[in-house]
Structures are given as C-alpha cells and as structure tokens.
Design a protein that fits this description.
Layout (H helix, E strand, L loop, with lengths): L2 H11 L14 H6 L21 E3 L3 H5 L3 E6 L9 H14 L4 E5 L3 H13 L2 E7 L5 H9 L3 E5 L3 H14 L3 E2 L5 H7 L1 H10 L5 E5 L4 H15 L8 E7 L4 H4 L21 H10 L3 E5 L1 H15 L5 H15 L8 E6 L7 H5 L12 H7 L3
Parallel strand pairs: 2-10, 3-4, 3-6, 4-5, 7-8, 7-10, 8-9
Antiparallel strand pairs: 1-2
Helix pairs in contact: 4-5, 4-8, 5-6, 8-10, 9-10, 10-12, 13-14
Bound molecules: pyridoxal-5'-phosphate.
Length: 373
Amino acid sequence: MTELQAASETAVGERSRDGYGDDRRRQGVIGRYAERLPLTAATPRITLNEGDTPCIESRSIVSTLGLGSLHFKFEGLNPTGSFKDRGMVVAVAKAIEEGSRAIICASTGNTSASAAAYAARFGLRAIVVVPSGKIAQGKLLQAQIYGAKVLAIKGNFDRALRAVRELCDRYPVTLVNSVNPYRIEGQKTAAFEIVDQLGDAPEVLAIPVGNAGNITAYWRGFREYHADGLCSRLPRMVGGQAEGAAPLVLGRPVERPRTVASAIRIGNPASWEQAIRARDESEGLIDSVTDGEIITAQRWLASAEGIFAEPASAASLAVLSKSVRAGLVPPGTHAVCVLTGNGLKDPDAARRDLAAPVPVDEDVENIARLLKL
Ligand SMILES: *Cc1c(COP(=O)(O)O)cnc(C)c1O
C-alpha cells in the first residue's frame, strides 16, 4: 500500500472536517465548499452536480514511469465534460446575485459549453464567442444545444477574449471567462477534493496550461488547505503547454498559437503572472510538449488505463512523462495528473490513424477465423 493510499484510508473517516462526508446530500461545488467560497446569504445555492469527480488510481502507467503513486483527477466526468463547470457554477451564482440577465465568454470550446448549460438551467441568456472554425465539434454542439447565441470571430482565442472584454466594459453583460475572479474561486475546489480523496496533497501535480486560470486555481486551493492544516505538504506544480502555444515557456506571447489541443491553443494567457508565481512558489516547472507527445499520451491513457481524455488534458501526462525522463521528477514520487476534459468532445483529434472497423458478414465461422479464436 502506498503512502498516499494509506493516507486515503484514514481520510475516509475524517471527511467531516471539510463538510464533505458528514452530509452526503450536499451536492455540487457550492453545496460542499460554501464556507471556502466568496458567497453571501443572497448567493443562490445552484448546482448541476458539478465536482466530486473521481481520482482514478493508475494501474499501469504508474509503474512504467516508476512513480510512487499516480492518480488521474478525471474532470471529464463533470456535467458538461470539463472542469470549467466548477468555476462556472460560482460565476453564474454571483451573476444571478448581482441581478445580471446575460453572461458572455470567449472560448476555445469548454467554457462556452459550460456557460451555455448553466445559463440554460438558471434562466440567463448566454452569448459565446468562439474562434471561427477552430473549436472541437462536440464543444460547439454543446453550446448550440443548450441554446447559447454562438458568434464565430475571425482570428484566435486571444482576439475573441479582447472583444468580449470590451463588450462587457460597455454593455450590461457579465463576463464569465477566467478573468472573472469567481471562476478561479470555484476551480480551486478541485485541489480540495484531491486532498479530501487521497488524504494529503500529492508531491507533484501535473496540469495542462492554456489561459492559466486552472493552475492558478489549484495552487490557491492547495495553499488554502495547507494554511488550515488540512494537508501536510504543497505539491510541485508541473504545467504542460503545447509546443506551438507555449508563451509561458518562451517568456513571450505567441502571435499564432498552433496545436492539436484546441483547449490550450492560447498565445497570451490571462493569468500569466499567477501561473509563473504558482510555478516558482511551488518549485515546479512549466514545460512544452509536442503534439505528437500529446496524442501519444492520449492514446496511452485510453489503451492502458481505460480513460478517454481530450488532447489538452493529455498534455498533463505528456509533461509528467517528459519530466520523469529528464530526471526532474524523481522515481517514487506521489503524483496526480489532472485530466481536464472528456475525449468525446473532440472525435476528430482522436480519430487520426485509428484502425477502421473491420467489415464482416454474419457468418460466425468467418468471424472466428478472422479473430483466430
Ligand atoms: C480550459 C481548458 C484547459 C486550460 O485551462 P486554463 O485554465 O485555460 O489554463 C485545459 N484543458 C481543457 C480540457 C480545458 O477545457
């Protein structure tokens, strides 16, 4: 039994400390972590049952990498299939509290899917601005089916974000990108959950980095729990950017970000300074990985662990694997890999070079021969 597992056994009986286990009926990020979020008596306690995603223990990759333990925080099991729901529920609750009737976001896809779902459920108008032709099919479909007004802007995500920021300065719509501070507040609950689930913080947290809100949020969450004595250590934050969209690695914005991982195809992250601070304060690192490494990691997760995550999510495993090989993460490390979104959102990215279904007729003997049974 690993150290982390042993800790998690004892943690089960102690969950009441965070208000998680003593009242199982409390659901959603706001219901479970209200006292750690910037809520007032007037904030509506809304939820789509986001959060409480599993920390799946690695069965195979852990030993290939020689780690002490490895868990996958599978955020693809949130209601709209990505971690964006954690921050969106808080941002939407605060928008309702403030009397807002409409929310808007620029999005590489998942923020728009999440904004659209929460707006639909809680009676707000949702407007989403996406880079034209550059978002995954499933994500666009989500925004449309939830009833958002979808606008496609020429240019990349950074352009779209600039446009919606200006719109919000001048018109009565609430911005729900991660520059909205309630988004980061909601997203930090994922760090709480990891500690609540495993009994302590890991030694390394591997995470994809795009607009850099999530690495900011996790670092804040771990620090808050640590300050209150709820975890014994702080993890090193190990961030993964795509090689063609790696402003934080290069130290300068990227004019034309390029990568198969559309959720991290961002050239000028809004939370730039906070991400650098998370990296440095945690004695971690932010490195880039190639699209080839990302797709290899995505396949590895699916075929070795049975977990289908989207390409951006696989950047966390790719950077962890690269860091292990480079000796920057030592053997025996207790690591958690954040898998930010569900692979089903982006079938086109996953489909490349996969074997096509084999045509057969219903002749059982032929099928048996084919399968060498
Ligand atoms: C938004 C997103 C990211 C990037 O998160 P940031 O907070 O922008 O760094 C990574 N993966 C997925 C699936 C996402 O939706």
